[in-house]
Amino acid sequence: MKNLIAWFADNHVAANLLMILIVVGGVVSLPLLRTEVFPVVTPNEISVNVSYLGAGPTEVEQNITIPVEDALRGVANIKKMTSRSGRGSSRITLQVERQANIQTVVDEVQSRIDGIRSFPRDIEPPRIRHNVQNDDIIDIIISGVTDQKTLATVARRVRSELLALPAVNLIDARGFPPNLISIEVSEFDLRRLGISMAFVANAISESSVDISVGSIRNGFGSLQIRAEGRAYYEKEFSDITLLQQPNGTRIKLGDIAEIKDGVSERFFLFRSKGKPSIVLETQLSPGQDVLELTSAVNQYLESANGTFPLGIDVSTWRDDSVEFYQRLEMLISNSLTGLILVFVLLVMFLRLDLALWVTFGIVIAFCGAFMVMKFFDFSINQISLFGFLLVLGIVVDDAIVVGEGIHATQRTRHKGLKGAIYGAQNLSLPIILSVFTTILAVVPLLMFESETGQQARDIAVVVSGALIFSLVECLLILPCHLSNPKPFEPKYEWYQKFRVFQKKVAQWLIDFARYQYKPFIEKCLNVKYLTASIFFSVLILFTTAYVLGFIRSSFNPEIPSNIMRYSVEISETAPEGTAERIHDTMIDAIGGLGGLEEEYEQKTGMARNILFPNYDSFVFGNNIRMSLEMSSEAMAIIDVEEVMSAWQKRVGEVPEAIEMSLRNSRTTGRPGGGDLSFYVSASNDADLEEAVERVKLEMRDIQGLTQIYDNRDRQGQELRLSLKPAAEHYGLTLGTLSDQVRLGFYGRIVQRIPRDGETVDVHVRYPLDARQNLNALREMYIQTPEGGEIPFNMVAEMDYVPILNSPERVNGQNIIKVQARMNKNLVSPYQAYKYLEDGIFINLKSEYSGFAVIPDGSVEEQGIFFNELSFYLSIVLLAIYALLAIGLRSYVEPIIILTAVPFGFVGALIGHLIIGMPVSLYSFLGLFAAAGVVINDNLVLVDCIKNLKKEGMNFTDAIAEGGRMRFRAIILTSITTFIGLTPIMLETSYQAIFIIPMVVSLTFGVLFATMITLILVPCLYDIKETIVGNFSFLRSRDGERLV
Known about the structure:
Elements: H1 2-10, H2 12-29, E1 45-51, H3 57-72, E2 78-86, E3 89-96, H4 102-114, E4 127-130, E5 135-143, H5 148-163, E6 170-174, E7 179-185, H6 187-193, H7 197-207, E8 210-218, E9 221-228, H8 234-238, E10 241-244, E11 250-252, H9 253-256, E12 257-263, E13 268-272, E14 275-284, H10 290-304, E15 313-317, H11 320-349, H12 352-375, H13 382-412, H14 416-442, H15 451-454, H16 457-481, H17 493-526, H18 528-547, E16 553-554, E17 558-570, H19 578-591, H20 596-604, H21 608-611, E18 615-620, E19 623-629, H22 632-637, H23 640-651, E20 657-667, E21 676-681, H24 685-699, E22 705-710, E23 715-723, H25 726-729, H26 734-745, E24 748-755, E25 758-765, H27 768-771, H28 774-778, E26 781-783, E27 789-791, H29 792-795, E28 796-804, E29 808-810, E30 813-814, E31 816-822, H30 829-837, H31 840-847, E32 852-855, H32 857-888, H33 893-915, E33 919-920, H34 921-950, H35 955-985, H36 996-1028
Parallel strand pairs: 7-25, 16-33
Antiparallel strand pairs: 1-3, 1-4, 2-3, 2-29, 5-14, 5-15, 6-14, 7-12, 8-9, 10-11, 13-14, 13-18, 17-19, 17-20, 18-19, 21-31, 21-32, 22-31, 23-28, 24-25, 26-27, 29-30
Helix pairs in contact: 1-14, 1-16, 2-12, 2-16, 11-12, 11-35, 12-13, 12-16, 13-14, 13-16, 13-34, 13-35, 14-16, 14-32, 14-34, 17-18, 17-35, 18-33, 18-36, 32-33, 33-34, 33-36, 34-35, 34-36, 35-36
């Protein structure tokens, strides 16, 4: 390596060509990189969805969910199975081991489910798929004061034309009313004609057909034979003949049935700014570019906007590329500001040419990272941009250490080329070791299985790529540029004056190291055990404070958004019209008299359409969803939490709601990031319910937990049928009774017809007024096997039975899901769960047989992440230790170097306390970068001390002198890292909020660890020398100490 350094330093052409090649490669690669808002993380999940229309939750659970769970027992590589049974559908979710081949597992699941023979005959075919995440990037809103059919026509046209664009692959539509053809026949008409509902359904199925029946081949070719008679519209269904009477009269379907060709009876509503709307959500498929996608959509709308019907408005909303650009602009502008500050600071202490090349080294390292990202097909996204921030301090550190080392060598020993070569060669070992130890530290990010960990893969690629090219720049390019015996200095008078001032500042730092720091460290070495004790006491104090929860933490960081999302789910038993009433209340809270728009227009003087550019609302069945957008201008002067609180206050209490949430953030990792959620199971239902009540009672004592509830709160009622003894006399079974009641009150989907680009169900059933009337069931007649009719009340009875609206199961066991909202400023989900786990859960396990708790949501994700982190961290520490031990030829010196890393954590905690923010996942990512800087500085210091000892200096003097010699490089590294990232740390825009914890960890971690490097590490080195210095067996053959 030393020969290579010397060759490049002496060959300006080779060094410059290498530099140009890297820069040009980076410049060419950058525009070719894909852009994403966040890296796509595909969960290793398989979903099994089975529809059993008309069935209640209990029936779905017994006939669908449990048979599927039983069939899937023993399938390899399934680590968790959860299920939820609702009205008319069952969903089973399978979490698959990360190392498994997902398609193999899908095929095995499909095979097992195909083998189930006990499914009811009326179920839809099971749908099995690998869950793939496709992010919504830009929404197209089609709105206007017109009928839904006109909106739907325009929306279908827009969707079709968008999908014809090369850049658009996926579009999900919201707001299309679910179309349905409902054929309704009364009980009276059925009995009048002596027919049954099954007879009507069969007549439609047999008459409304399109079918190919073969072909005739002759000498003239092949002639296809086909029957076409499928009905598509109301008139065509009306003309279907049901039966022909003896007198020749034909009874048509339209004679006895009311045929409704329209939308579903379930309450449906979609509005944008109060107007009927349809939204097309344009999604990013894997491998797509977000900027290319949004550009294609916007260009299409610009060209097509004048072609839509009068009164129809087609516009975009929730364009993620805007937020991406804003964050990118914020990062670039603040990074450039930081880079300028770093350059100015370096110029104050180093030569102009040295400061320029150290700063330009950042550009070279980043260009190299761009090439690596392109080679491995990684995208520019908000996570990879963090990687560039993280590695910035390490890149600057490497360049400063080598540059300052060359500068010091040229100043004190060798001039020009010889000084550049000697200075770089002297530092090559610690620089190479520091780079590869940092790369080893981020390698685990490539191997995480948790969804949270997978998002950090981009960081590992960016950091590794930048560090490799930073190493190339420091050792092969920088020495050449610093080899001139007469460094470049402008002849301007102002610069000469500045140069005089700069020399005074530089000399001041050198004098400070010699006359202030060196005497101080000598005193510390005299009381080295006391000094070490003080530092380790601080480490224990802050670590204990964090573990015990005195320092706030929030594992899944909330990523701020300018969209507030209000979600309400009401009970199935709520009166008719409840969802519409709640929806209107939520709308009035925004745009009504005294609403948010009016209040904040008066407070700020900003127009309503600038404050809140848009809001939409969606109601279907029992679910109400609303989204409210705040502009960037509004968010700069208004606290979003204040707006959310005001909105919530205006909506007020909703007693019919079983679940409500109001958020303005996206959370990394799994859903449920801000709430506490876990499953409880026990051997029997009585013990389970009693244990859950005790858990909920204990949860009320945890400060910060609110709205504690469980899925039993979703209880409803069902009418359960049973046979009377008389039914047996008429040959009736519960199955035949249920089939006839189902045909009338739920009906039968006799056909699914393709029409206008969608599939329309054809449903045969009783009229709506009969299906809403309990007396219609009591007055119903049941047909016997012999063809007779018996009143329902003679053969059947009914009872009201309480049921869970959505029973859930985990790994085939009945569970109760306990949830709670929480105040994130008082407690985190993990802290609350640990409090319960270490307390009442232990007691309940001893009191109730089979009692178990399974974490869910962010608690489960955090557990998985930290289990992976502890496993990979132990391996990485061993690998780093081995690398350092081999490179330094010592068993103990690597431990001294790594000792400073935990103190970076202390610095990060202090920084979070000063700034007043919780420790989050991004805080830990910042610590990775801080650890890289700290290891680098410690390596350089230890290497310098060892070199001085080899030159014959007493080890105590060598420690003090080594600290003095490396003082300037270490101080400059810390100050440049802090100054360079200060603009981002002081950023107040909402786009920077979730970056700041990472920056705080990096800057304060490096600052605090600097004291460790300059004070604690010399003391630990002295302690090591004192303890083992006299043991001859710890020496190698050449007399060098092995420890």
